[in-house]
Amino acid sequence: MTNFVYKPHVSVEQQDEKKVTLLLTIPENLYYFQGHFPEAAILPGVAQLDWVMYFLREYFTVDTRELSSVDALKFQQIVRPNYQVTLLLEQIKENKFSFKYYSAHGQHASGKVVIAR
Length: 117
Fold this sequence. Notes:
There is one protein chain. The chain is mainly beta. It has a domain at about 1-20 and about 30-40 and about 70-90 and about 95-105. The protein has one helix and six strands. It has a six-stranded antiparallel beta sheet with strand order 1-2-4-5-6-3, covered by helices on one side. It starts with 8 loop residues before the first strand and ends with a strand. The relative contact order is 0.22. It holds the Pfam family ApeI-like. It comes from Litorilituus lipolyticus.
């Protein structure tokens, strides 16, 4: 039986009051790889968005329970087990944040989230 995890291994690369850059190592035993897909595991986009919301709570101390919108959401390159991916989170306005996942494999995803006030 595998002990699944729900979050990547994280190290903070850079942080200030408006921006945080995180280095994420994607573990093989990530729960989201289960059945997605058995022959070639791919990190689902919904998990990537969940992590954005989680890290906004952790590093910007915003209440992300009431999401107003997700704008300009793009998934460009797949994320596989053992990838090292950088997540850049930036505060654009008081309640608006941009995010970008990228690595040596290219840009994986990007978008903007607006939190209800």
